[in-house]
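G., before I forget:
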Amino acid sequence: MKDALIIDGELTVAVAAEQQARLRAFLERGTAADVDLSGVTELDTAGLQLLLVARREAAQRGITLTFHNPSRAVHDVFVMAHLDLDGAPR
Amino acid sequence: MTDDDLADALDTFITEARELLQDFEEGLLGLEDEPSAQDSVNALFRTMHTLKGSAGLFGLHHLVAFTHVVETVLDSVREGELAVSAELVSALLPCGDHVSSMVEGVAAGRLDATTSETVDGDRLLAALQPFLTLSSPLAPVLAEPEVDTLRTWRLTLRFGPDSLRNGMDPLSFLRYLATMGVLERVTTLTDALPDAEQMDPETCYLGFVIDFVSGAAKADIEDVFDFVREDSQISIVPADGQADDYVKVIEGLPDQDRLGDLLVRSGAVTDLEIARALQIQQERNRTGDSLPPLGEILIETQTVPKPVVDAALGKQRKTADSRSQETQTIRVYANRLDKLIDLVGELVIAQSSVGIHRPDEEGYDEAQGEVMRLVEEVRHSALSLRMVPIGTTLRRFERVVRDVCVDLDKDVDLVITGGEAEMDKALVERIGDPLLHLVRNALDHGVEPRADRERQGKPIRGKLRLNAFHDAGSIVIEVADDGRGLNRDRILGKAVERGMVQPGTVMSDHEVYDLIFEPGFSTVETVSNLSGRGVGMDVVRRNIAELRGTIEVLTTAGAGTTFRIRLPLTLAIIDGFLVGVGPSAFIVPLDRVTECVELPPNAAERDCMYLRGEVLPFIRLRTIFDIAGTPPRRQNVVVIEQSGQRAGLVVDTLLGQFQTVIKPLGVLFSEARCISGSTILGNGEVALILDVGPLVAENVSREQVLV
């Protein structure tokens, strides 16, 4: 069964170090991974780059990492930056 | 009005504005001496009022806005609400300068204020604020109509690594941009993202490339990034395919001299980007030895696409071409022009009177003589059109003296006499710099500080005299101070120290004082702000020599120094001495010729001869100019003198004195040394005018080594 990581609260520079640790620990575990973003209340550049690095890192390890249930905050950022939630940047 | 009419009218405006500003400055300085003179106050007010009015006609809003404030201040002086004070004059003088620089800007094709001008203007207006009474509020500046057209910009944003830590979230900039226009395409640059284990979660790695469609001006977009500009790389360039639009805009712009101005006005570049490019240019200039062109830097830093720069360069070149001689105007006295036309009319009549007489008839010689006389007069009269009184140039120094005195904390009165003496306009323009140097020198080194003057029982206020007068076909300008005079011993000591004079040489006072004009000579130990900056008296002398003038110094220890400049009245005609070598003819300026002798037959093999017991090195023009043919049996030597050095010119024939109308050589010959121009002889042939200075310097020094 797939691992799932639920990120909630802020995904911003203020908590970037903690969130980075969580993401990395999560990647260490599984072979396929889901990240649930429904609880993210705020996403800034620091958060965005964490997600992008995690996705790239996962791909390098042969893990499929997918972002699920983006909250409004996450959705807006991805739309504005013309990024795709499922795959590589357009 | 057609474009041409408008350009003509604008030229007139600029000429008028320059004069008004000159009046303004003179008036202000006069006001300082005599604060209660109602006439001067009125005149001052009128200059600004007229300027404002004329500027308004041409829609020069920046000029109108600025002059309006100055006018308001002067109005309250006129109404007696504000008293004239030194502070007021000091605040107003730079305002005049500022208006001048804006007017020059207009002359160069800039119809709006540049950013730096706006900043300067605001600063000056702030300085005027204390003088503005409450009853006269500032009028609102005329609103600029802003035409918004949608443009696509390619924004490349690479934020500094510390942006996040500093609380600058790149995404918030994107959000803000979205309020100004449409983010048509965004590419997130992830190439800087490190591997997961090396990633510092608080460092910013992301960049964005955005195609941004907006009606905002480039400068406004640029302003968005004000806070992060220092450590980020922000570039805003017209998107692909938009370059053509800018090229069209640039081609439609009014003529401009400066590349930067063109690009800024087209909207492709902002003032800030130009400033940055200029900075890069300066740095490279310091490190490398060549000055890279601004356009290249702009392309290299990807500020503007190449086609836009090329269009601007083309426009710049066209501007420079079109501003040739014919667009320059000169003011002449109407009565002189009338007189010239009168004379030409008379000449035509005299000419026809020659026509009706047969050569052997009585009256023919008389008619012929009349024609000759009229030709001479026409020439005289035509030359006088270029003559202007020197007073305007001299009065400009009132301001210099005032400013320098404030800097040096000295009291010096400037006395100008002989301002009505006339000289060639071209000369007047070129004598300004050397005079400026002499005036500053006199104030700095000549006139003593107050305490010294008091100790010597001199009046505390120093006196600087500028005097001009005509003397034997030349104009003499004197700069005289009543200061300490030249110190003979110190000059001689310095010259010995510098190895310019052998110790123990016996020299006349005159020779010693002349040393100050030698290159590399400066007796001042400390470099002051004003003079002593390496631009020495040697440069002054060289500049004056270029105008075919001379300078000498007269001094009395403790009583003052006088510099006397002697210049020809015009640059257009000289008295020449015509010589022939083979089929060619040359002109030697007559004032350089001291005598003519026959070449001794025994000197044929050497390049020097004895003249009254002295060795005279000579130059064979035949050799220098590579003239074919064998020299005649008897050759002549024209003895010339240049800067105390004598030399001979070996020529075939002496053809006598000749009134020489100088025709400048074309650009093709600009590299030719030893020749200063050409003239057309009576038989239609061309004669070259020898430039004696370089000719002697280049050829004789070598000979002296051999002798």
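Residues 3-80 of chain A form a domain with the Transcription Regulator spoIIAA fold (CATH 3.30.750.24). The mean pLDDT of chain A is 80.

More on Monday.
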